[in-house]
């Protein structure tokens, strides 16, 4: 590739067009540009019309390129959805493992192509179901997992060597335990680790920024566990994505689209620096980094965000870390449609919102997609609502024809201009984080928490004063007092069943083997060694999730969430 | 009332979704109230903080499904300490059919996702005087 730009447009023609646009403004448009200023959701001004002048410097090869080639603006695979449709990955998670196993089978029987498991809050926060801290949350919002045996029940007769599993493990401390359980479960079923395909979340910001809790590990400790899981997987799980940098939950908590992506990439940068300092080569691990974006309502901005995120990641991996393997420069991401944009009033309207967001994900080149259910402002989805989401995906894939050509919005003056602007703002926000000492430092100082809090506060004000329109709420508000008729999903009683299982488990374990495994794990917490093999050993000895997490809490200490 | 109304706001138990609780806390401050945001806490700690701070109002936020078990527990613990005049409010994702039972157990009001801060603030002012 030449260093010099080969501009797509003849600059003389563009210049003439600029003059012509001015004339059009005066003579045809006559200044009728609307009565206010228009901005994208992240604050980029929107012009009434885009033309070649807005992207006059564009070099097709360098700035856009072909799909499957750098800079991957048009997508990471050459044939995109013609090669493989994005994975229909609807979330499932509630109750005890045997309840959730039924929902997984239901979704797979109806054509879902991947599994996507969420865990209940005690599990993701590292408590057993019979722990007093778990009260009220067992089996709610996700499935309860306490031990290896629960993981075996959860995936009972699910072909984990054929389909890919996403396990939404949130925090690194839970990831190392749940990933270890998943690996041991597979090995006991005779499935080689090389065959395991899937993703876990493993983002230290889920522990220290997004998810507040009474007991949180310090950012440095959480980040170390995050890197341990990634490093271990790079050596033993060639088809596994050991991290999904979670922009989604940051966005839901309160960031713009720009901040969402910038923080995700800043975390990838911090990870790469750490793993390289441990003696790994960037090409050992970068190819399995994956990302998780939230697609909200600003249709074109979300598409531009997806395209821009690939551009910036490629630059970072190529220029900063000198990644040689093309796979190390490809950003692959999962999309979930936005929960925060859904309303409790007139819940069926949410089907329209989620469909539009899902369409944006496809036009943005997502690798897998979860479409939120219309009842998510009430509870975990009912079976009926989950089916509507699944069907929405299938309608997008099968009926709309949007999947049959790659990156159809490329070349749109607006989308290309917005893609460039988003990329620039993402770079600038990453630079700001780095000026403040990097992602771990801005977490420790509480700067990131304040950024999120400020955004959430401003957005709430904009909703209350009507600047940000929400149909049924402040824009064409729904009739007052008319309660929505909606079936609320009721979580099955789980705590009692899980408590009984734990009691049985504790009785039948080989105590000497367990003590030895837990002792080894405790010893390694403050060493430089990768923690994963020791967690695996403990899991195999039937240590519970809560027991392992308690060791982490004791050895790493707790951290005060910096938001008051 | 000479001093500002004092609110102790908490995320209930393990529920992680803090956006609403933080936004409401900040907006109640804009309304002239004094708000102490505790972050995530369990009922015992919330009640202890309410006592220490001399709270007029306890705000509990949850989107995680623990409203029925942990919400009324806060009221119960306050009553045990003879603090039944502290107003206990809840916010978040709470099915409407659960609200009557919560009110029966002493939750003064439940503010769902589309509530406006002016309504929350005027409800508080109407009760605390």
Describe the protein.
The complex is a heterodimer of chains A (564) and B (129). Chain A contains 21 helices and ten strands. In chain A, helix 10 runs parallel beside helix 12. Helix content of chain A is 48%, strand content 7%. The model of chain A has no long low-confidence stretch (mean pLDDT 94). Chain A has helices spanning 11-29, 60-64, 97-109, 121-124, 148-154, 172-188, 204-210, 219-236, 247-254, 257-277, 282-285, 299-320, 349-363, 383-398, 413-435, 439-444, 447-464, 495-508, 511-525, 532-540, 545-556, and strands spanning 87-88, 91-92, 114-118, 164-168, 198-200, 240-241, 243-246, 289-295, 332-337, 368-370. Chain A starts with 10 loop residues before the first helix and ends in an 8-residue tail after the last helix. The relative contact order of chain A is 0.13. In chain A, the strands form two sheets. A five-stranded parallel sheet of chain A has the order 1-10-9-8-7. Chain A is an alpha/beta fold. The radius of gyration of chain B is 13 Å and the shape is globular. Chain B has a single domain, classed as 3-Layer(aba) Sandwich (Rossmann fold). A five-stranded parallel sheet of chain B has the order 2-1-3-4-5, with helices on both faces. Chain B has 129 residues and is of the alpha/beta class. In chain B, helix 2 packs across helix 3 (67-80). Chain B has helices spanning 19-30, 43-53, 67-80, 99-104, 117-127, and strands at 6-12, 34-41, 57-62, 87-92, 109-111. At the A-B interface, helix 9 and helix 17 of A face helix 1, strand 2 and helix 3 of B.
Helix-strand blueprint:
The complex is a heterodimer of chains A (564) and B (129).
Chain A: H1 11-29, H2 60-64, E1 87-88, E2 91-92, H3 97-109, E3 114-118, H4 121-124, H5 148-154, E4 164-168, H6 172-188, E5 198-200, H7 204-210, H8 219-236, E6 240-241, E7 243-246, H9 247-254, H10 257-277, H11 282-285, E8 289-295, H12 299-320, E9 332-337, H13 349-363, E10 368-370, H14 383-398, H15 413-435, H16 439-444, H17 447-464, H18 495-508, H19 511-525, H20 532-540, H21 545-556
Parallel strand pairs in A: 1-10, 2-3, 3-4, 4-5, 5-6, 7-8, 8-9, 9-10
Chain B: E1 6-12, H1 19-30, E2 34-41, H2 43-53, E3 57-62, H3 67-80, E4 87-92, H4 99-104, E5 109-111, H5 117-127
